Amino acid sequence: MSTPRRRRSHSPCLQFVISILALAAVALTTACGSGSMSTPSSPVLSGNTQVTLVLSGTANDQLTEFDLGLQGISLTSQSGKMVSVLSALQRTEFIHINGGIEPLVTVNIPQDVYTAATVTVAGAGFTCLDFTAPDTLDSSTFAYGQTPSANVTVNLSAPITITGDAMGLSLNLLVAQSATYSACYDPNAISTYSITPTFNLAPMAFSSEPTSPENGKANGFNGQVSSIDAANNSFTVALPMTENTRTVSIASVSSTTYQGIDNFSALAVGTFVTVDGAIQPNGSLVAMRIAVEDTTALQMMTGPLMQVSAGEPALVLWGRQQQGTGEDVGGGQYFSFGNAAFRISGQLANLQNLPFTPAFSSSNMVPGQNVYVSASTLVTSGGFPYTPASTVTLIAQTIDGAVVASSNSGGFTTYTVDLASYDLFPMLAVQPGQAALLTNPGEVEVYVDNNTQQLNSQPLAPGSTLRFYGLVFNDNGTLRMDCAQVNDGVAETPQSNASQQNLPEKGQAKAVRVRNFGRLR
To answer: Disulfide engineering: 57 pairs with which of 98, 189, 231, 476, CB 3.0-4.6 Å?
Structure first.
């Protein structure tokens, strides 16, 4: 089994930790449009509009995690007035919402035409993984304790008119433009990097119809039930955060599907849930699906598999999201799965129609797959004894790749997608001592049918780079995805050399080895 080790990089002044401390606010205002919108056909702008701001991410597969502390968000009107949208620190991770959305805040904003926006970022950090032969898996986290205002950019494609009773705004992090580093692993333990958070801000529409693809669906939304309103068939969930936890209200309706529990009455405070829902104008969700993977769990963690041992029932998971009692560990976490129940997320309802047999088990899971692990305890020793997993569930993930071929099979169109070399599937497949092997880890067969939501403007055809969201299976050595959603892709990031670039607030950070995962026993 390979020997992964985790190295944490430091900024010149401050060490980054997963729970970044809130520091002094700084601001950047980027003017992206101007001119009066007052024309005979323009709406009369008076009073306030209820605005729900949602977060999204646009990323290729180069980074495993990207954390930001959003400290402040404001809008500037055409007359120069500034309006606060967010004034309290909120932590968020953007890779798990690559191609998706997540509600952040709902506020009342004066109706006006806004031509610029400011985002203040406190701590920021990104993580990459790198397998260095013959048997070492490294993780490096590059971070700022406070992000300089000059490093932050907010793009508006056109002035935003805030009007009506309610509307939505989407704040989308362009991940590839937001992080630059010379190398994930440097044999001299010196890396040069820069964090330049770059956002697109744009209006988005909400619909009262939960099944409408235009109304803003939050898929695979994880949280822990914090309160229940039985009279109104609604409940509140706290998001997986270690501090400044935000909550979201979720309503159950007659069409809501339950998985793992029978109905609304089976929910209890403390239960971990996964929700697919439609974001409403007030920031709440109308649930289309409510899933409970483990009714007795006290811990949950989601993220990509890093290692699966061939010698014993043990795995290492990179925890992007963690929630429950006990210590926040983040990063790589050991689990033993000898007594775990293996499951497949019920998010996609067409598994039985696939032209292959979708399966996920202890014998065919592979590094790179996205999983949800539940447990009743959490062992933080970093080695044996490992945390015993209660359930291991295959969940949806986003891959970014170039379409090289297509064919038809039954009611599906199959697209052959080539992955970049830094994608976790090809990178981690070369580790020794694995339980299951892939024939061609740099390639995924993606299955698209009439249920697939196609949000892409690029053609879904050979020659296009696209992002695909769905369940990835190991079918006897071949990676196959049951695709739920298609988005425009992100170009492959070439190997950069930040030390040769004139980047703002560059850091020369020494990578420190803080954990030696060792060989799985």
So the answer is: 98
Both tokens of residue 126?
Answer: 């990104």
Give yes or no for a contact between 457 and 331, defined as CB atoms under 8 angstroms apart. Answer: no
Picking from 314, 293, 315, 318, the residue whose alpha carbon sits closest to that of residue 304 is 318
- Domain of residue 341 covers 299-394
Judgement on whether residues 152 and 86 belong to the same structural domain of the protein: yes
Residue at a domain's end among 394, 416, 449: 394
User: Do 28 and 128 belong to one domain?
Assistant: yes
379 and 415 share one domain: no
Q: How distant is the alpha carbon of residue 165 from its chain centre?
A: 30
* Domain co-membership, 359 together with 471: no
Q: How many domains is the chain partitioned into structurally?
A: 4
| pLDDT for the residue numbered 410 | 86
Q: Flag residues of the chain having pLDDT under 50.
A: 2-40, 210-214, 497-502, 508-521
**Conformation bin of residue 322: beta by default, left when phi > 0, alpha when psi is -120 to 50:** beta
At residue 153's C-alpha, the angle toward residues 148 and 157, to 5°, is: 170
Query: Are residues 77 and 117 part of one domain?
Result: yes
For the domain that residue 409 is a member of, what is the CATH number? 2.40.50.140
Residue 212 in domain? no
Residues 6+ apart with CB under 8 A from 512: 7, 8, 9, 10, 189
Asked whether the beta carbons of 18 and 67 are under 8 A apart, the reply is yes
Q: Are strands 153-155 and 198-204 parallel, antiparallel or unpaired?
A: parallel
Cα–Cα distance measured from residue 404 to residue 420, given in angstroms and rounded to the nearest whole number: 13
**Residues sharing a CB contact under 8 Å with residue 293, sequence separation 6 or more, in sequence order:** 260, 272, 274, 300, 343, 372, 374, 391, 393
Tell me if 234 sits within 8 A of 251, measured CB to CB.
yes
CB 66 within 8 A of CB 97: no
Nearest CA-CA partner of 277 in 374, 350, 209: 209
What CA–CA distances, in Å, run from 284 to 64, 229, 263, 342? Answer: 29, 14, 20, 31
498 three-state secondary structure: helix
Residue 481: strand, helix, or coil: strand
Q: Give the domain-ending residue among 175, 204, 233.
A: 204
Task: Return the pLDDT at 168.
Answer: 94
Nearest to 405 by CA among 461, 348, 467, 486: 461
Give tens-digit pLDDT for 180-195.
998 888 777 677 899 9
Q: Are residues 402 and 374 in the same domain?
A: no
